């Protein structure tokens, strides 16, 4: 365990600490969905560090301390988290979430995020979405849904998010403090894309509801928008 606080890894430090054998979060007993979510949320960014320290209204301090001291701090300090630490968290999630399969079955990452953020830590939803002018919906992450498109062979995240929002007629009601995006996945037998290029920056200008945007014809503020 690492009792001290460690900042997220950046640049050369991230490469030095995280590259090589026996690095990352050790998988065990269908833990891949949780391993990859935890690594993505905490290894190289501090956006969600409030989950580790802040006493939220519904916050379970035991789960919070396991997450902080047994997973995030060792990951940032040594680049490695043993499977037993993740299992300790899974056992607590099973106990708190009234779901007996968190310790042995593969879950959807969204199910894990909803449980730990909403039911256990009591964090407010990170995203506000609106579809086709209907009522706003709150959520913690956005999963990309889209049909197979032949012109996208090796897409980047920017393209996938834009096309997914377009096909679902979705808009962001406001700029999110944290935008967690789940890539399309279809199990071992079929994958829509063999590779997806990470977009190091994400332009959400055209995804925002009622946001002033530039007309692509004259350059002035646009008054009409077509899909």
From TrEMBL:
InterPro entries: Papain-like_cys_pep_sf, Peptidase_C19_UCH, USP_CS. Gene3D superfamilies: Cysteine proteinases (3.90.70.10). Residues 24-204 form the Peptidase C19 ubiquitin carboxyl-terminal hydrolase domain. Its main location: cytoplasm. GO terms for molecular function: cysteine-type deubiquitinase activity. It is found in: Cytoplasm, Cytoskeleton, Spindle. One of its GO terms (cellular component) is spindle. The keyword Transmembrane does not apply. Keywords: Cytoplasm, Hydrolase, Microtubule. The keyword Cytoplasm applies. One of its GO terms (biological process) is protein deubiquitination. This is Ubiquitin carboxyl-terminal hydrolase CYLD.
């Amino acid at each position: 365990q690492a009792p001290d606080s460690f900042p997220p890894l950046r640049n050369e430090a991230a490469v030095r600490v995280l590259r090589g054998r026996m690095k990352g979060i050790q998988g065990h007993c269908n833990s891949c969905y949780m391993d990859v979510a935890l690594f993505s949320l905490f290894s190289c960014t501090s956006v969600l560090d409030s989950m580790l320290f802040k006493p939220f209204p519904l916050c379970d301090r035991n789960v919070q301390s396991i997450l902080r001291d047994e997973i995030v701090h060792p990951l940032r300090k040594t680049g490695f988290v043993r499977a037993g630490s993740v299992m300790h968290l899974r056992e607590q999630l099973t106990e708190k979430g009234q779901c007996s399969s968190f310790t042995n079955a593969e879950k959807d990452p969204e199910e894990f995020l909803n449980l730990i953020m909403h039911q256990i830590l009591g964090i407010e939803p990170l995203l506000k979405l609106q579809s086709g002018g209907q009522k706003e919906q709150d959520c913690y992450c956005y999963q990309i849904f889209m049909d197979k498109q032949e012109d996208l062979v090796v897409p980047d995240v920017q393209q996938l998010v834009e096309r997914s929002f377009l096909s679902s007629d979705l808009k962001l009601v406001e700029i999110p403090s944290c935008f967690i995006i789940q890539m399309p996945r279809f199990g071992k037998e079929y994958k829509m894309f063999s590779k997806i290029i990470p977009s190091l920056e994400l332009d959400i200008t055209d995804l925002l509801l009622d946001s002033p945007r530039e007309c692509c014809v004259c350059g002035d503020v646009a008054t009409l928008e077509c899909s």
